[in-house]
Write a structure and sequence with these properties.
binds fructose -6-phosphate; 21 helices; 7-stranded antiparallel beta sheet; Rossmann fold; Glutamine Phosphoribosylpyrophosphate, subunit 1, domain 1
């Protein structure tokens, strides 16, 4: 997500913050800015620009050079509300311009808060959720609270997951002060000699100090020239240990992990929390983003789900859910095929585009095609401001945060979740059969538990490591599954082949005997996925077919106690959840499998040969 840096001390705050922001560059961003406190008091000096640091913010500093300042905050933005622009860039200020805020995360109730503040006369200058915060702090500041108290009061009104840094110019004898807040999103305090830092990532402070305090959820940090203090949610001052970090700068970018891919795999529980936040509750899906689609959903007679690679696999997994929930035919389509297939599109065809980057050339070509046919269009993407997000009638963002590794992980599983929510929402609007309503309720009931279940899966990787050890010397592997497990198998084989260079293919398990079985020979690895109750016996027979040819079977299952598991050579157990959601947990296990196998084979995991993160050419 976004990057935060704050500084107070004897150095030039502009230099320290700019250096920190550059160190967060690997997160990707669409705009950056800083707010500096003048020593004499008065308004904070805010400079912010859309675009890269070098061409945007750095140029802004040349055009509007700040005076020497020893305290300030900075931010690199990854847009979630409001497209990238100078105005929407952080920091955001209160009406008087004497305090400024940067923010990472989402404020769910920003709309209501903004309305109330506007009615009280507060002036807003951007479209972003963050801007309510400085105005709320201002209200409490005006009522006599100091900066820390005012921030604590303001935060009581906020709903969501976020990290904040607030800076205020000195008022009277108070001197400058920085306040940090951690609510789900990470924030640390860097402790130097007579200087203190706030940062979303350790990477930003490493050149200055290796002593850091990792704030706990609900903590507030107050930084002044005289020191720092931490307060818990109730406002009680607390001690937090100072940890000494021995990472080098490159390790720090990857959060201490050897590759971005594993960092991003491990980030999935948090990404799912963000993707679901404010979108489910009381057996209902809340997706106000679907305003246009909701209005025309009754006139639809077919749905196309279009994407490439991993995003196509998300479409494949979502297809049955769309068909069931909306009660009309739904098809998953590969964009590079669909664009030349002369599809029968019309005003009654909803075309759903799935794309992490929102820039994939084939997917965008299909969007043109849909628009020419006047078909309603809906986009699911991770990138606010991307071509896809700007071109469709409605867009839902996956909120997974920037993904650096070429192989998609967290963006894929968040796509799966969002697609399920969309199918549920549109189905409810059209009206669905009771059995489908029950299915949807099961999805909504289980989805909030997924992050916790994922943590358990991520904590115990022994089974996955064992299977990776078996796979690593092989040059061929097979993935089999039925129904949703076939979609999961498709994604599993793609992940394995793209990063480990093992030739892998997925086969619908019932299709084995129509050809692929000829390739099953002694000890060849076959990953069999079984999570769907109504297909379990059929899968058991397919596993027997493989076993009879001498294949080595790894069963990925949510029923490790079953008879089929007993005949498998290895079992990767996954937690049991609503059937529709199981591809999310299976994906996590298969991502880990691909990752560990690739590492064992010495492959360049984050940058596989011949591949690019965003495929903007045909
Ligand atoms: C594989 C992978 C690719 C992308 C594909 C589409 O791990 O990431 O297969 O899914 O290139 O990209 P987007 O989703 O950006 O349209």
């Amino acid at each position: 997500m976004c990057g935060i840096v704050g500084y107070i001390g004897p150095r030039c705050a502009t230099d320290v913050i700019m250096d920190g922001l550059r160190r967060l560059e690997y997160r990707g961003y669409d705009s950056a800015g800083l707010a500096l406190v003048p020593r004499a008091g008065g308004q904070v000096h805010v400079i912010k620009r859309q675009g890269e640091i070098e061409t945007g913010l750095q140029r802004g500093l040349q055009e509007d050079p700040p005076r020497f300042s020893g305290a300030g905050i900075g931010h690199t933005r990854w847009a979630t509300h409001g497209p990238p622009s100078d105005d929407n860039a952080h920091p955001h200020t209160d009406c008087t311009g004497s305090l400024a805020v940067v923010h990472n995360g989402i404020i769910e109730n920003y709309f209501e808060l903004g309305q109330a503040l506007r009615e009280e006369g507060h002036k807003f200058r951007s479209e972003v959720d963050t801007e309510v915060i400085p105005h709320l702090v201002e209200t409490h500041r005006d009522a006599g609270a100091d900066l820390l108290e005012a921030t604590m009061e303001a935060v009581r009104n906020l709903r969501g997951a976020y990290a904040l840094a607030v800076v205020e110019s000195g008022k009277g004898d108070d001197g400058e002060a920085l306040v940090g807040v951690r609510r789900e999103s990470p924030l640390i305090v860097g402790v130097g000699e007579d200087e203190y830092f706030l940062a979303s990532d350790i990477a930003a402070v490493l050149p200055y100090t290796r002593n850091v305090v990792i704030l706990e959820n609900g903590d507030f940090a107050l930084l002044t020239r005289n020191g720092y203090a931490i307060f818990d949610e109730s406002g009680q001052e607390v001690e937090r240990p100072v940890e000494v970090v021995d990472w080098d700068a490159e390790d720090a970018e990857r959060g201490g992990h050897p590759h971005f891919m594993i960092k991003e795999i491990l980030e999935q529980p948090a990404a799912w929390v963000a993707a679901l936040q404010g979108r489910i509750g009381d057996d209902t899906v809340y997706l106000p983003e679907l305003e246009y689609t909701t209005g025309i959903v009754d006139r639809l007679s077919q749905v196309y789900l279009v994407g490439c690679g991993t995003s196509y696999h998300a479409a494949l997994a979502a297809r049955p859910q769309f068909e069931r929930m909306l009660g009309i035919p739904a098809r998953a389509e590969i964009a590079s095929e669909f664009r030349y297939a002369d599809p029968a599109l019309g005003t009654d065809s909803l075309v759903v585009f799935v794309s992490q980057s929102g820039e994939t050339a084939d997917t965008l070509a299909c969007l043109d095609l849909a628009k020419q046919a006047d078909a309603p269009t809906l986009g699911i993407t991770n990138v606010v401001g991307s071509s896809l997000s700007r071109g469709v009638d409605d867009v839902v963002f996956t909120r997974a945060g920037p993904e650096i590794s070429v192989a998609s992980t967290k963006t894929y599983t968040t796509q799966l979740l969002i697609l399920d929510l969309i199918a549920g929402h549109l189905g409810t609007t059209r009206g669905m059969r009771e059995e489908n309503a029950q299915r949807m309720r099961a999805v909504l009931a289980h989805a909030p538990d997924l992050p916790g279940e994922a943590e358990r899966l991520l904590d115990d990787q022994e089974a996955v490591l064992g299977v990776a050890g078996y796979l690593a010397p092989w040059e061929d592997a097979f993935f089999i599954g039925r129904g949703l497990d076939f979609a999961a198998a498709m994604e599993g084989q793609l992940k394995l082949k793209e990063i480990s260079y093992i030739h892998a293919e997925a086969c619908a398990a019932g299709e084995l005997k129509h050809g692929t079985l000829a390739l099953i020979e002694q000890d060849i690895p076959v990953i069999a996925i079984s999570t769907q109750d109504h297909l379990r016996e059929k899968m058991a027979s397919n596993v027997e077919e493989v076993r009879a040819r001498g294949g080595w079977i790894c069963l990925v299952t949510d029923r490790p106690e079953d008879r089929t598991a007993a005949i498998a050579d290895a079992v990767i157990p996954i937690p049991r959840t609503a059937e529709v959601l199981s591809p999310v947990l299976v994906a996590l296990a298969l991502q880990l499998l691909a990752y560990h196998t690739a590492v064992m084979r010495g492959c360049p995991v984050d940058k596989p040969r011949n591949l690019a993160k965003s495929v903007t050419v045909e």
